[in-house]
Automatic annotation (TrEMBL):
Ranges for domain RCK N-terminal: 2-118
Any GO BP: potassium ion transport
InterPro entries the UniProt entry points to: NAD(P)-bd_dom_sf (IPR036291), RCK_C (IPR006037), RCK_C_sf (IPR036721), RCK_N (IPR003148), Trk_Ktr_HKT_K-transport (IPR050721)
Organism: Mammaliicoccus stepanovicii
Domain of life: Bacteria
Name of the featured protein: K+ transport system NAD-binding component
Residue span(s) of domain RCK C-terminal: 135-218
Underlying gene: ktrA
Pfam family, one: TrkA_N
GO molecular function: monoatomic cation transmembrane transporter activity
Length: 218
């Protein structure tokens, strides 16, 4: 059985989640207080509903607690976002993901029980900063405040050595989890795998160690 999702708030962020879930063949109920927004999604979502989600009675009548996962994608209106999240948790929805507009908003969402709080703008900003700060870092995924996964382009200093010779685990405390070579991807590469010029290494580790590795070897 496919999972059933609810997306509340059909702006750019929520709208793109609905489109993507639909492309993945998932059932999704799309809710917005704005009729025109809802109409836009009537053919894309499994159900598209006009409702004010800060109204508890309306939420109950939609049977919202029976869904697997509710995503609160209300952006600007922080009051509506927090109240909606609160009602969802009070009604017993197991999994609520909420979009935070800023750090204060995130703090409140965490406090009222949102299971996951996402900061798409902040995260994208950070990814882009890492990307532009270093020509060799192609992408960056923050796992926690201290740990990340980065995609690093292998330059001349790395090319020709095997993973064993580099011994990044001992020397830097980081792990190469995959190597992208052209269209191929080598997952969990063999330690004897030779790194080639322009390979893209997917590396996991502490931010300080990743930085050290990048400065020394890339
Ligand atoms: P984005 O930044 O992703 O474009 P917006 O803040 O522009 O997000 O859009 C959020 C959407 O949430 C809007 O379409 C708005 O109508 C909807 N929304 C705001 N408050 C409520 C509410 N109380 N109930 C339902 N939908 C709401």
């Amino acid at each position: 059985m496919s999972k059933e999702f609810v997306v509340i708030g059909l702006g750019r962020f929520g709208g793109s989640i609905v489109r993507e879930l639909n492309a993945l063949d998932m059932d999704v109920m799309a809710i917005d207080a704005d009729e025109a927004r809802v109409n836009e999604f009537s053919d894309i979502a499994t159900h598209a509903v006009i409702a004010d989600t800060t109204d508890e009675a309306v939420m109950k009548s939609l049977g919202i607690r029976n869904f697997d996962h509710v995503i609160v994608a209300i952006g600007e209106n922080i009051q509506a976002s927090t109240l909606t999240t609160l009602i969802l948790k009070e009604l017993g929805v197991k999994k609520v993901t909420a979009k935070a507009q800023n750090d204060y908003h995130a703090k409140i969402l965490n406090k009222i029980g949102a299971d996951t709080v996402v900061h798409p703008e902040r995260d994208m900003g950070r990814r882009i900063a890492h990307n532009v700060a270093s020509a060799s870092v192609l992408d960056y995924l923050e796992l926690s405040d201290e740990y990340s996964i980065v995609e690093i382009k292998a330059g001349e200093r790395l090319a020709g050595s095997s993973i064993l010779e580099l011994d990044v685990r001992a020397n830097f405390g980081i792990n190469i989890i995959a190597v992208k070579r052209g269209k191929d991807i080598i997952v969990a590469p063999d330690p004897n795998e030779n790194i080639e010029y322009n390979d893209i290494l997917i590396v996991i580790g502490h931010d300080n160690d990743l930085n050290r590795f990048e400065k020394k070897l890339v």
